[in-house]
Amino acid sequence: MTASVLWFRRDLRLRDHPALDAAAQAGPVCALFVLDDVLLKVDEGPRTAYLYRSLRALDEDLRSHGGRLTVKRGRPENVVPRLAKEITAGEVHVSEDFAPYGAARDRRVEKALGDVPLVRTGSPYAVSPGQVLKKDGDPFKVFTPFYRAWSERGWHRPSTSNPAGISWYPVDGIDIPHDPRTTAELPEAGEAAALAAWKDFLGGDIEHYNAERNRPDLDSTSHMSVHLKFGEIHPRTMLADLGRRGPAYRRQLCWRDFYAQVLHHWPDSAHGYFQPAMARMRYDTGKRADERLEAWKQGRTGFPIVDADMRQLLATGWMHNRVRMIVASFLVKDLHLEWTLGARHFMDHLVDGDLANNQHGWQWTAGTGTDPSPYFRIFNPVLQAKKFDPEGAYVRRWVPELKSLSAKEIHEPWSVDDPPDGYPAPIVDHDTERKESLARYQEVRAR
DNA sequence: TTTTGAGTTGTTCGA
DNA sequence: GTCGAACAACTCAAA
Q1: Topology of domain A125-159+191-265, per CATH?
Q2: Which of A232, A259, A327, A409 falls between 20 and 30 A from A6, CA-CA?
Q3: Which residue from A340, A384, A344, A388 is spatially nearest to A365, judged by alpha carbons?
Q4: Rounded CA–C1' distance between A198 and B13, in angstroms
Q5: A133-183 pLDDT tens trace
Q6: Sign of CA dihedral A214, A278, A286, A428
Q7: pTM value > 0.85
Q8: CATH superfamily for domain A276-446
């Protein structure tokens, strides 16, 4: 039996892992992770800190089964073939990466491997990009019909193979680096933590998910995004556990597959406008725009729900989905700043930051993406706050300056006779900026 | 080819 | 306070 390499990327787990199963079929498995300088340069901060923790957890898991995680640093097209040669591996196994950088990288590695095949089995998605297409063979651009076709197609059953039954081939590598400096409080990393979080969610909040998922104060969402981002759990495992339960949650999992396939079919949409006409939108630039962007980033806009969320991002690397939309709408429609600026800030700080979800979530809010929002759909930060944080508990938690205000006052601190010290006045007037946004949209349309 | 119905997440205004 | 209409026109998916 010849050895093979399992090259881990965004699949940091040992259960329900088809590529691992495929590698183990061939013989002893060398578990490899490559610290790719290109990716790490982009991915500094909390997400890298989380990655290192997840790698440590994976290494521990492997060691408990007689293996070890071999960590190398460098360019994968050099590192992977070198290791394959060192252990005279017959095959290199991976879960397929469909993102623009990863797909190109894998083609380079495949070429550099020469006679040793790069075997792609499975992907981080319930249904891989390219598998769900319209009847005419083109990819979907609208979510709902995609969801119907995706549901109809279905997904594979989870693999039940056991890491204890695999013959491991440990090879020396480098130590997992120390965490980069980050002040964010990160969730626990690793497959065991992911499975525990999932079990916890299934045991309780899933029952109220549809009713309460928009309430940041109740914090009743699953928090699975980061585990999915790093592949500590596979969505197929989750869908199987869900069965008929949680249709609203299943839909959310489908969104992840939807945006992955959009990015796969339109790789330029990671940074370019999915709706090209919208690239003509007029945005603010200059000193005042820079200051407003900075106020937004720091959570000092004077709009409590916006500031709460932006501070939560810096403190924890995570934001509630509803509030992600509120702050995104605020950046684009109230501050008239380009969505790409907000998308970059999110990617810099989100532990679950995923290119497809992030860029297309932003494009959707900005009205430049798939399912573009009608031009008149502009979030009112006060109304949204009152609706989804009715007691103000969420704001109180992240904006302590406003702690003493009542539920009635807290989302409009400027209306209080004696506003609390240290909290900024609103940097814009929502009603004015809403009209300005509508006017700028008309400019784009008028051409 | 043409037609038809639909499109995650909203807000305001006037009755 | 509640409710329905209006807010444009376009693109997409499927028949």
Answers
A1: 1.25.40
A2: A259
A3: A340
A4: 45
A5: 999 999 999 999 999 999 999 999 999 999 999 999 999 999 999 888 777
A6: negative
A7: yes
A8: DNA Cyclobutane Dipyrimidine Photolyase, subunit A, domain 3 (1.10.579.10)
